[in-house]
Amino acid sequence: MSGEATEEKEGVFSFVPETAFADGFYVLTAVATDEAGNAGGRSGEAKVEVDTLAPGVPLLYVPSLTKENMPEIGGTAEAGSKVKVKIGSIEFGPVVVSPDGGYSITPSTALADGTHLVIAKATDLAGNTSAASSARSMVIDTVAPVAPTLEGRKLGKESKPTLRGTAEAGSKVTIYKGELVKDNILGEVFANSVGRYEFVPREGFADGAHLIRATAMDEAGNVSVASGLFSMKVDTAPPAVPVLTVESPTNESRPEIKVVAEAGSVVTVFSGGSPLSGEATEEKEGVFSFVPETAFADGFYV
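The chain above was modelled as a monomer; its predicted structure follows.
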């Protein structure tokens, strides 16, 4: 092999071949010849692999959007090579690529919220370094949205009342009955581009009082604190048939009419199928008094 071995220090020589090796595996031996021309025995074999080819550009996968400020970043590269990942100006790694070609790196320091450009390079066992991967954009958002608002009718006859409110645009609003646990979820709906949402439950509420609250989750997965409690009452049962009494005959053209009906209800008195003008007032629980605003002419009335 052409080239000259130089003695760097007593008994220690360095040899660089004049002709480059092609990539591949080689077995090397050495023979020492003294100044008198005597040649010694051949050394033991040394095996060397020459590899001048850089590994392929690693593939890079980044989570985006993510609420994690130390997100796991992964990809594939030449098995056994070492991969370094650069996020902005900060370099992380290296990590050794597994035999199946996979790798993952988790930043050792928290990243700020915002957009980060990420690249990766692989270096093989021979020290050849690949070109950089294409830059990937990674957006980190660790800030939870503000609590949504929750509105609706506080008392209604609909078993599936419409609930509405405001939340971060594009966020997913989860509606709960009572405590914020999975079993209490009534359903989910997305806030529109201007931050409004409407929700109608799939199943009707039972008659009675209900406490409702809501949370909002943004696209990164951050969940808000709960809205304030919204108290509502559903009443789908009609009141009992009222009992009406009036003195007859009477010399009053605007006679007082007594009605017994469900407490708190609105009582309407009819004559001949038409409602009479006037307002029934509840004198005591379930007992109403009604005096028509317009006087009756003499005659019979139902």
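The longest strand covers residues 114-123.
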